[in-house]
DNA sequence: ACCCTCGCATTTTTT
DNA sequence: ATGCGAGGGT
C-alpha cells in the first residue's frame, strides 16, 4: 500500500499513522530539525521509531540509504528492521540501521588506511584485549597483583568512551595507574593494536569520531547517509557517541533522539544521562516530546513504579498514565530465607500457569547473577522449565574461541593473539619457553609471530623438537590458507578442526563436558553455512556475539534486571529486595547518591516490565559468599505506596516500617542485634535462627532439635557427643560440628 | 611441560 | 562456595 504523502483527510491517512495517540503522532511527524522524545516505559516507542522512518520515506524527504538509525544492541536493530519490513509490505529498512559499533566498523573499513589500518583489520573482544594488556604490563615489569590488567583495560575503555586519545589523557587520571604510567600504557597498547592491524570495541567508536572530525571526506560521507538520523535508547549514549551524533547531524540538524532518563542503568559503562540535558543545550530549538501514555501495565503497577522513581532527584520528570485500567495490585512477600523465596516464587508461577499464563510470559528478574542459582535449583526440582537469559554466550565459550582463533589466523596471519591462543592447543610441545623465544624474536624484528616463526625455524634458536613442531604447524596454516578460496568457510572450519587435532583432543577426553564442547563445535560449523564468506562470519562473531537458538518449549525467563530492559512480561517476579543485595552495596560505595539513584532506576525498570502482575519478595536470611547472613528488607520497599500493594504479611511490613523510620539508612545488617534481625524474630513467619540463651553449649540441644549453623544453614540435631553435635543439614548433609557454632532455631 | 594447591575476590555487561 | 591466577612442586 503506497503511502499518501501529505494526505490530510482521514480516509487517506497512511497506515503507519493509524492508531497513534497525539504525542506519538507528533513524534512521528516532526521530522525536520532536532527532536528529543522522552519515552517512558511501555509507551509504544518502537512503533514511533518505525513509523517515523516510514514517514520520512513516504514524504519523500529522503531515500532509505539516507536515513541513519542507531540502536544499542543487535537485537534491537534486528527487531526494528523486521518491524519496518512488516509494516510497509516489505523492503524499506534503511541500510544504515544498526548499532553504533556496527556502523563504526563500516565507516572504519572504508577509511582504514587513513588511521593506519588495512581494511581487513581484526576486531578484538574483551578477552583478547585483556591478554594484550597483560603482555604489555608483563613487558614493563608491572606487578599484576598491584596493578591488575583489568584496571588498565577499564581505564582505557573509559578514555575511549570519552573520546580521549592517547597522549591526551588527563594527568590526574593517568596518574591513577602504576604511578602515573597509565597514559604511557595507553599509547603502547594503541601502538600494539596498530601493529596487529586490530581495533578494540572502543576504537569502533573513537576512530570514526576522529575521522569525522579531522577528515572532511569522511565527514561528508557520513553526513550523506545521515540526512535524517534517529537514535534509540539515547540515555545510554556515552560521550564519543554523542560527539559522533553531533558531527553527523550538524549539517541537516535532522536528529531525533529517543530515550528515557529513568531507564538509564548503564552509567558504569560510560553512558551519560547528561547527554539528554546537553541535547537541549546544543540544540536550543529542539522540540521536546513526552510520551507518557502507557499501554503496557495496569494502574497499580504504574503507581508503584512512579512513586518509587519520584525519589530520584536527577530526572527530567515524566508521569506515566495507564491506558489499560487498574489491573492488579503488586504483591509483596517476606520470606524466611532464599531457599523459601525460590520455593514460593516457583509455587506462584505454577499458580499463574494454572490461571492460564504462558510460561513465556513470566520472568524472574534478579539484581545479580548469583541469585539465579536458587531459582534454577528449585525449578529443576519441580520440573518447571526455565531459561537463563544472557548467560555465557555461545561465542565466548573456550572451545568456540579456539576454533575462531584458528580461522582468524588463517584469514589474518598477523593476528598474534589468535596465534598465541591456539599455537599449543592441542599440545604440540610448543610451551612457554619456545613461545618466549619466538615472541622476543618477533618483537625484535617488529613483525608478527607467523612470519617471524618462518624465519626462526631456519635457525638453531629452538630445540629441535620444538622446531619440528613449529614447522609442521606453519605448514598446516599455509595449507589451510590455500584452501580459503577453494573451500566454503564451513568446510574449511571442519578441515581445520580435524587436521589440527583439535577435535581429536576433545574426543579423547571422555567427559560430559568434552562431549558438550564437541557438540558446540559441530553447531559452530553448521552455523557458518549461513554466511557468505569467512570474512563475514568473523565479523559476525566479533560484533554480534549471539547465537540464539529458538526452542519451541515454553519457559520461564530468569535474567538480571539489566538484561530485562526493553522486554515485557505478563507476570514479573522481583526477588531479593534486601539491603546488601538491592540496592547493591557496591553501587552505593562507588557512586554514593548517584549510585543509589541508578539502583532505583533499576528497580523502576524491573517493575515496569510487568503487564498484569508484579511480585516483590525479600528474605530474612540469605547465603552470601558461602555464609548465611541475616538481611533486612530493601529501602526501596519503604518507597512503595502501600495503597497499590498487597503485602501478604502486613504484620512484618508494619514492624519493618516502624524500625526503619527510626533509623533511616540503617544499612546492611551484620550483627544479630540489628533492627532487621529483631523484626525477623518478632514475626512468626520469620521463625529464623534467633540466638537464644543457652546456645553454644551442647546441653541446650536434644536430638531432633532444629538448629542453625552460620556456614551450613538450617538443619536438625541427630546426636550429641560432648561439645560436638552431629547435625543433618537441609542443604549440606550430615556434619559433625561444634555446639559452639550452633544456634537453636528453625530447622527445615 | 604439566599439575596441583593455595590465596583472593566476588554487580551489572553491550559491542 | 566457587572459580581463577600465580607459584611451586613433580
Give the N-to-C terminal Cα separation.
65 Å
Overall geometry comes to: globular
**Low-pLDDT runs:** 1-10, 650-696
Q: Estimate percent helicity.
A: 40-55%
Q: Based on the structure, what is the oligomeric state of the protein chains?
A: single chain
Rg, nearest Å:
29 Å
Count of helix runs? 29
Class inferred from helices and paired strands: alpha/beta
Beta-strand residue percentage: 15-25%
Total DSSP E strands: 23
User: What does the average pLDDT come to?
Assistant: 82
> How would a crystallographer describe the biggest sheet?
8 strands, mixed
How would you sum up this structure, described in words?
There is one protein chain. By secondary structure, this protein is an alpha/beta fold. The strands form five sheets. Strands 11, 12, 13, 14, 15, 16, 17 and 18 form an eight-stranded mixed β-sheet that branches. The chain has a six-stranded parallel β-sheet with strand order 3-2-6-7-1-8, with helices on both faces. Residues 1-10 and 650-696 have low confidence and may be disordered. It is 45% helix and 15% strand. It has 29 helices and 23 strands. It binds a DNA duplex (15 and 10 nucleotides) through residues 72-74, 99-102, 104, 123, 125-126, 144-145, 201-202, 204-205, 236, 265-266, 268-269, 367-370, 390, 427, 429, 431-433, 542-545, 560-563, 584-587, 602, 623, 625-627.
In short:
By secondary structure, the protein is an alpha/beta fold.
Give the topology, please.
Layout: H1 22-29, E1 35-39, H2 45-58, E2 67-71, H3 74-87, E3 96-99, H4 100-110, E4 122-123, H5 126-139, H6 149-161, H7 171-174, H8 182-195, E5 198-199, H9 201-214, H10 216-224, E6 228-231, H11 239-249, E7 255-259, H12 274-282, E8 287-291, E9 293-294, H13 299-309, E10 321-322, E11 330-337, H14 338-354, E12 362-366, H15 372-382, E13 386-388, H16 398-411, H17 416-422, H18 432-445, H19 449-456, H20 464-482, H21 489-499, H22 502-508, H23 512-528, H24 534-544, E14 556-560, H25 561-564, E15 569-574, H26 585-607, E16 610-624, E17 627-630, H27 635-638, E18 645-647, H28 650-662, H29 675-682, E19 706-709, E20 713-721, E21 724-729, E22 733-738, E23 742-744
Parallel strand pairs: 1-7, 1-8, 2-3, 2-6, 4-5, 6-7, 9-10, 11-16, 11-18, 12-14, 12-15, 13-14, 15-16
Antiparallel strand pairs: 16-17, 19-20, 19-23, 20-21, 21-22
Helix pairs in contact: 1-2, 2-3, 4-9, 5-6, 5-8, 9-10, 9-11, 13-26, 14-15, 16-17, 16-24, 18-19, 19-20, 21-23, 28-29
The structure holds a DNA duplex (15 and 10 nucleotides).
Amino acid at each position: 500500500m503506497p503511502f499518501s504523502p501529505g494526505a490530510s483527510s482521514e480516509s487517506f491517512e497512511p497506515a503507519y499513522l493509524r492508531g497513534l495517540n497525539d504525542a506519538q503522532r507528533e513524534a512521528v511527524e516532526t521530522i525536520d530539525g532536532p527532536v528529543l522524545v522522552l519515552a517512558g516505559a511501555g509507551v509504544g516507542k518502537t512503533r514511533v521509531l518505525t513509523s517515523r522512518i516510514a514517514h520520512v520515506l513516504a514524504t519523500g524527504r529522503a531515500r532509505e540509504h539516507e536515513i541513519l538509525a542507531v540502536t544499542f544492541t543487535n537485537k534491537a536493530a534486528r527487531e526494528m528492521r523486521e518491524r519496518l519490513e512488516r509494516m510497509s509490505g516489505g523492503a524499506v529498512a534503511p541500510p544504515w540501521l544498526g548499532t553504533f559499533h556496527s556502523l563504526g566498523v563500516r565507516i572504519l573499513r572504508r577509511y582504514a588506511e587513513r588511521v593506519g589500518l588495512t581494511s581487513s583489520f581484526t576486531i578484538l573482544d574483551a578477552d583478547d584485549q585483556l591478554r594484550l594488556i597483560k603482555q604489555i604490563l608483563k613487558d614493563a615489569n608491572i606487578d599484576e597483583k598491584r596493578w591488575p590488567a583489568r584496571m588498565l583495560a577499564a581505564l582505557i575503555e573509559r578514555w575511549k568512551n570519552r573520546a580521549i586519545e592517547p597522549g591526551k589523557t588527563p594527568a590526574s587520571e593517568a596518574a591513577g595507574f602504576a604511578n602515573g604510567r597509565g597514559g604511557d600504557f595507553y599509547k603502547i597498547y594503541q601502538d600494539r593494536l596498530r601493529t596487529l592491524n586490530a581495533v578494540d570495541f572502543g576504537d569502533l567508536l573513537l576512530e570514526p569520531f576522529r575521522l569525522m572530525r579531522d577528515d572532511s571526506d569522511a565527514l561528508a560521507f557520513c553526513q550523506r547517509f545521515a540526512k535524517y538520523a534517529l537514535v534509540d535508547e539515547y540515555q545510554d549514549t556515552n560521550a564519543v557517541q554523542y560527539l559522533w551524533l553531533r558531527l553527523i547531524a550538524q549539517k541537516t540538524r535532522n536528529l531525533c533522539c529517543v530515550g528515557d532518563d529513568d531507564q538509564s542503568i548503564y552509567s558504569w559503562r560510560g553512558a551519560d544521562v547528561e547527554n539528554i540535558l546537553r541535547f537541549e543545550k546544543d540544540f536550543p530549538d529542539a522540540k521536546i516530546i513526552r510520551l507518557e501514555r502507557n499501554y503496557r501495565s495496569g494502574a497499580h503497577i504504574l503507581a508503584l513504579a512512579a512513586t518509587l522513581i519520584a525519589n530520584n532527584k536527577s530526572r527530567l520528570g515524566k508521569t506515566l498514565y495507564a491506558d489499560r485500567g487498574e489491573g492488579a495490585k503488586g504483591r509483596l512477600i517476606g520470606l524466611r530465607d532464599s531457599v523459601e523465596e525460590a520455593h514460593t516464587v516457583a509455587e506462584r508461577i505454577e499458580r499463574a500457569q494454572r490461571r492460564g499464563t504462558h510460561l513465556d510470559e513470566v520472568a524472574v528478574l534478579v539484581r545479580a547473577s548469583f541469585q539465579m542459582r536458587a531459582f534454577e535449583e528449585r525449578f529443576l526440582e519441580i520440573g518447571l522449565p526455565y531459561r537463563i537469559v544472557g548467560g555465557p554466550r555461545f561465542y565466548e565459550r573456550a572451545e568456540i574461541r579456539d576454533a575462531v582463533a584458528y580461522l582468524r589466523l588463517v584469514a589474518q596471519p598477523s593476528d598474534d593473539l589468535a596465534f598465541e591462543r591456539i599455537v599449543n592447543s592441542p599440545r604440540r610441545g610448543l610451551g612457554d619457553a619456545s613461545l618466549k623465544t619466538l615472541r622476543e624474536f618477533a618483537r625484535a624484528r617488529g613483525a608478527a609471530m607467523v612470519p617471524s616463526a618462518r624465519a626462526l625455524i631456519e635457525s638453531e634458536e629452538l630445540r629441535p623438537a620444538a622446531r619440528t613442531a613449529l614447522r609442521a604447524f606453519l605448514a598446516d596454516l599455509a595449507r589451510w590458507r590455500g584452501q580459503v578460496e577453494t573451500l566454503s568457510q564451513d568446510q574449511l572450519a571442519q578441515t581445520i578442526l580435524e587436521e589440527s587435532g583439535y577435535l581429536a583432543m576433545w574426543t579423547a577426553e571422555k567427559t560430559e563436558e568434552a562431549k558438550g564442547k564437541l557438540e558446540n563445535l559441530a553447531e559452530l560449523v553448521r552455523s557458518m553455512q549461513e554466511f557468505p564468506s569467512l570474512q563475514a562470519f568473523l565479523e559476525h562473531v566479533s560484533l554480534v556475539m549471539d547465537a540464539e537458538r529458538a526452542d519451541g518449549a515454553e519457559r520461564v525467563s530468569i535474567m538480571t534486571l539489566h538484561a530485562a530492559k526493553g522486554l515485557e512480561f505478563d507476570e514479573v517476579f522481583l526477588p531479593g529486595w534486601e539491603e546488601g543485595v538491592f540496592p547493591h552495596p557496591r553501587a552505593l560505595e562507588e557512586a554514593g547518591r548517584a549510585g543509589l539513584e541508578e539502583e532505583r532506576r533499576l528497580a523502576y525498570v524491573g517493575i515496569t516490565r510487568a503487564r498484569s502482575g508484579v511480585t516483590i519478595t525479600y528474605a530474612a536470611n540469605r547465603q552470601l559468599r558461602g555464609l548465611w547472613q541475616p538481611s533486612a528488607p530493601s529501602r526501596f520497599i519503604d518507597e512503595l505506596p502501600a495503597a497499590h500493594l498487597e503485602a501478604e504479611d502486613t504484620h512484618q511490613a508494619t514492624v519493618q516500617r516502624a524500625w526503619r523510620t527510626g533509623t533511616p539508612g540503617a544499612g546492611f545488617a551484620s550483627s544479630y542485634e540489628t533492627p532487621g534481625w529483631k523484626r525477623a524474630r518478632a514475626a512468626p513467619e520469620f521463625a529464623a535462627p534467633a540466638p537464644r540463651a543457652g546456645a553454644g553449649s551442647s546441653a541446650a540441644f536434644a536430638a531432633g532439635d532444629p538448629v542453625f549453623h552460620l556456614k551450613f544453614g538450617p538443619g536438625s540435631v541427630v546426636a550429641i557427643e560432648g561439645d560436638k553435635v552431629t547435625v543433618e543439614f537441609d542443604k549440606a548433609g550430615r556434619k559433625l560440628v561444634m555446639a559452639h557454632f550452633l544456634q537453636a532455631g528453625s530447622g527445615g
